[in-house]
Prior knowledge:
It is a single chain. By secondary structure, the chain is of the alpha+beta class. The chain has one domain: 3-Layer(aba) Sandwich (Glutaredoxin), CATH 3.40.30.10. It has four helices and four strands, in the order αβαβαββα. Strands 2-1-3-4 form a four-stranded mixed β-sheet, with helices on both faces. The longest helix has 17 residues, at 24-40. The protein is globular, with a radius of gyration of 13 Å.
Amino acid sequence: MSAFSQMIQGPTPVLVDFYATWCGPCRMMSPILEQVKNKVGDQVKIVKVDVDKNPAIAQQLQVRGVPTLVLFQQGSMVWRQSGVASEQQLLQILETHAAVAK
């Protein structure tokens, strides 16, 4: 089992940001994810995956564009979106799909 598979299996929801260093919109996501992390704390793990350095994971999850955000709950994908998401959107998604308290 890969380290990625092990990480998404745990009881804590995992929000994965698939990004690339050359991608402008991806750079816009960093401060947004930072704000979300500050609000949700340890209730959610937020992980960034560089698609250029981890092509196998990106291919396995059929990530075609970046940024792509994927939320895993105990190993299962419960939400996915390509493109930039606002802090408000992400907090709403986490509340809905991962039962995260604001």
